[in-house]
């Protein structure tokens, strides 16, 4: 089986009938970028920029950020010839993902209800200058290394947030372009769909973004009202829930209807049983931890798109997680 998988390392992801699906990697540091390249990732679908801000007391300034992004972009680009797209997620901080260096700047983020508080994009909008710094550093590093950068915002819940973040990104881009920056193509701007509000409003949000990337880890947490870090409840919900499957289906449909690429970058994308079925729902990019890449590519290529579509629709009929699991395991 290992040999079977090896054949996929240098090939692009596709269904048996040749429908292309970008098989990207989730990366959290320079080492991860190297590993992603070794495993044949066609791009980085989720760069968790948090790596730069953790385990330190002083917040990195713009120059330090730019240097770190350059190193990471080069580490990925040098390791493989086929893909150079990198989707950078802006800093996803909050009481659930604490960063002392950030708190030293903007005050304590401790909250009684960390998952529901000042997180992700909400912090960007309260502290715009920090986001501007990060965007400038990312854009300059992209220019210096020749990678194709895309920008993605975490924890979006409303259209107003998207509009403000896009406008701000456009301002930063225009400012740098005024000073000679040229990126071709111009960076696409997308959002993580990881709140129920974003999933329910996907048809509206689609018109305001270039792409969606579904964060199934947080989406699961918020749809099921299950704290992903609390073993007492998280373990009760170990399996794919029908409610989560329906939410993903709705987002994929909205993206397709508006001609926007829909990706999945949560853990579900890297499950070989589930990844191809996400493609059946309309997802065209799967981003996962590098060790999962070959197995997902290999399974996706076993069947044509119509088969994955049919099975994905069948799963929408499941009424319980047990039933859904049973259906999943019965799929060839
Ligand atoms: C997610 O929520 O699914 C996701 C990919 O982001 P993170 O796990 O970093 O919160
Ligand atoms: Mg998340």
Automatic annotation (TrEMBL):
Catalysed reaction, written as an equation: L-histidyl-[protein] + phosphoenolpyruvate = N(pros)-phospho-L-histidyl-[protein] + pyruvate
Gene Ontology biological process terms in this record: phosphoenolpyruvate-dependent sugar phosphotransferase system
GO cellular component: cytoplasm
Catalytic center residues: 265
GO molecular function, one term: phosphoenolpyruvate-protein phosphotransferase activity
Family as reported in the entry's similarity comment: Belongs to the PEP-utilizing enzyme family.
Listed name of the protein: Phosphoenolpyruvate-protein phosphotransferase
Species the sequence originates in: Thermogemmatispora tikiterensis
Part of the intact protein present: 288 to 619 of 619
